[in-house]
Amino acid sequence: MSTAPSFDLDHHGDADASPGLVDLAVNLRPGPPPWLAAALGTPPDWVAYPDPTAAKAALAARHGVPAACVLPTPGAAAAFTLVARGVRARRPTVVHPQFTEPEAALLRAGAQVRRVLLPPPFTLDAALVPADADLVVLGNPTNPTGVLHPAERVRALRRPGRVLVVDEAFMDFAHESASLLGPREVGGGTPDLTGLLVVRSVTKMWGLAGVRAGYVVGDPDLIALLAAQQVPWEVSTPGLRALSASATPRARAEASAIATRTDADRAALLSALAGAGFPVPHAMTPGAPFVLLDATAAGPRVRERLADRGFAVRRGETFPGLGPEWIRVAVRDAATSQQFARVLGALRREAVEASSSGFGHVHHQDSARG
C-alpha cells in the first residue's frame, strides 16, 4: 500500500495525441452510427429543460434494477466527483494502476487516499486491500492495464461498512462477461447492489466524448447521496438521449458485434507486437480496446521516437504503479497495428545496436514517418 510518490493524475490520453500522428493514445471509436447521432435530437428539442426520467427508465430496464438505482451523469468521470463528495469516506483506497480521475476527485474533496499498487501482470488480489478500507475503487476492465478481473474476484472486495466503486467504462468491449450488473441469472431477479456503485460510460463504445454521457447503477441509498451532489439539469438533453438509445436492444446487439470485431483487431495487434519482440502477458490481453506494454526493449524516449515516426501513444508514467517504460496502445485495424509493430521493432533493433556498440543512448535517425 502506498501514498507516494505523486503523479500527474489530471493527465489524460487526449493530451498525448498530436495532429499529423496516427492516434494510438485515445481509446475512442471514430464516432456514433447515424441512428445514434439522430437519437440525440435537434435544436428544437433542446429548448425545454432536460428530463432524466426516460433515460433512467431505459437504463433500469437494461440492467434489471429499479429506477431508484440509476443516476445519469455528464460523463462517467463526473460520477467520481459525486462519489468523493457524497460518500465522504474516512479511509478511501484506490487500486492501481487504473484510471486516475477517481483518486483525483477524492483528493479534490480533501480525502487522504491510500493506494494499492498491483504488480505486473496487474491481476487483482483482494488480500492486498486493507480490511479497514471503507471505500474501494477498482477499474474492470482496468484502464490502462487491460486486465479483466473475474466478477467473483471483484465481489470478494465487498463487505459490510464498505462502499465498492467499480469503473466499468470499458465493460461493453468485454461482452459484459465480468460485470457486477449481470448477466442476470436465469429466471431474472434484481442484482444485490448493497454497498455497490458501478460506473458506466457511452463515450468509449459510441465515440461521444463531446456529448458527456455516463451513469451509475448501485445501492439506492448511495445513489441518493450522489444525486444530492448534482446541480439541477446537470445532464443535457442530448446526453440523456444518448443514454436511452444506448440501452436499446439494437444498441446492445451492435455493441456486441463491435466488441467481437475489437477482439479480432486486438488479437492482430498482440500477434504483431509479439513478432516485434514485445509480447504482452495473457492476463493483460482479454478485455479492452487497448493494450499496455513494457517498451523497455525499445530504448529510452520511446514515445518521442515513435512520434518522430508518426505514432502517438499514451504515456504510462502518469499512472501510479507504472513508469516511462510503459505505453498504452489503442486497438486499431490490423494494417495499422502491423505498421506500428514494425516501427516499434525497428526501435528495438536500434536500441540493441546502440547497446552492443557501447553507446549510452540510442542514436536518433531521421526516417520517413511510418
Task: Write up this protein.
- The chain folds into 2 domains: 118 residues, Aspartate Aminotransferase, domain 1, CATH 3.90.1150.10; 209 residues, Aspartate Aminotransferase, domain 2 (3-Layer(aba) Sandwich).
- By secondary structure, it is of the alpha/beta class.
- Helix 2 packs parallel to helix 8.
- 48% of the residues are buried.
- Helices cover 33% and strands 14% of the residues.
- Its EC number is 4.1.1.81.
- Keywords: Lyase, Pyridoxal phosphate.
- It is an enzyme of class 4 (lyase).
- InterPro entries: Aminotransferase_I/II_large, PyrdxlP-dep_Trfase, PyrdxlP-dep_Trfase_major, PyrdxlP-dep_Trfase_small.
Distance between the termini: 42 Å
Strand order, largest beta sheet: 2-8-7-6-5-3-4
Tell me the β content.
5-15%
Gyration radius, to the nearest Å? 21 Å
Could you say what the CATH architecture of the largest domain is?
A: 3-Layer(aba) Sandwich
Using the alpha-carbon principal axes, give the shape. globular
Keywords:
370 residues; alpha/beta; Aspartate Aminotransferase, domain 1; Aspartate Aminotransferase, domain 2; 2 domains; seven-stranded mixed beta sheet; four-stranded mixed beta sheet; 11 helices; 11 strands; 14% strand; globular; disordered C terminus; threonine-phosphate decarboxylase activity; lyase; Aminotransferase_I/II_large
